[in-house]
């Protein structure tokens, strides 16, 4: 099975020396890529800037911005049987990138932001992907309700939901505790564990489901 995985944060430039980003370490996505590779799958990892080492034996494409990640996904998704979107993509970027370093002249500075491409949200509607689609939902409240809503809106087969208000799990942590949200409102809580062991469990689950699900090609909009 050919599997595409996005991982890590994106960086949205403000000027030549500054950017907007987030605390994602990329560990969950990298652990998923390693677990899938170890299970004998062909993995393509599309990664934002991270400091952890690249997993060996896995094809990796490095990107910086949401736009670059969007383009890489669009190019490489055809032919994949499943796709897992674990990247923490910036939802907004500076509307203008200033060509020279911004000097501190005024007392306050306002940045105007614009929406970035919704990569996961484009997979069914724009890229007509028919494989098994997995998204993550990092929430601070109403975890399951938000995750189920995301599952439906983005046409996912599985949302891996985690409560990022809890310390020691999720963003920039070694461990994670997630609930699997499936179509039809079914949920499966998984115990707190290292991202490495969670990745193995998730890859096993996704592989077994992905081989039995193939979506019809959507009609053009
Ligand atoms: N994602 C993406 N492209 C974006 C933003 C998010 O592919 N521009 C993916 C993430 O990799 C993750 C999921 O979407 O799998 C997270 O969705 P999120 O942005 O949290 O969901 P939204 O439905 O946009 O809701 P909100 O930001 O309001 O929580």
Structure description:
The protein is α/β, with parallel strands linked by helices. It has one domain: CoaB-like (Rossmann fold, 3-Layer(aba) Sandwich). Helix content is 25%, strand content 26%. It is built from five helices and 14 strands. The chain has helices at 27-38, 66-76, 119-123, 143-153, 195-210, and strands at residues 2-7, 12-15, 18-20, 42-47, 59-62, 82-85, 92-94, 113-115, 132-139, 158-163, 175-176, 178-181, 187-189, 193-194. The strands form four sheets. The chain has an eight-stranded mixed sheet with strand order 5-4-1-6-9-10-12-13, with helices on both faces. Strands 2-3 form a two-stranded antiparallel ribbon. Strand 9 (132-139), helix 4 and strand 10 (158-163) form a beta-alpha-beta unit. The radius of gyration is 18 Å and the shape is globular. The two termini are 29 Å apart. The model has no long low-confidence stretch (mean pLDDT 94).
Topology:
Elements: E1 2-7, E2 12-15, E3 18-20, H1 27-38, E4 42-47, E5 59-62, H2 66-76, E6 82-85, E7 92-94, E8 113-115, H3 119-123, E9 132-139, H4 143-153, E10 158-163, E11 175-176, E12 178-181, E13 187-189, E14 193-194, H5 195-210
Parallel strand pairs: 1-4, 1-6, 4-5, 6-9, 9-10
Antiparallel strand pairs: 2-3, 7-8, 10-12, 11-14, 12-13
Helix pairs in contact: 1-5
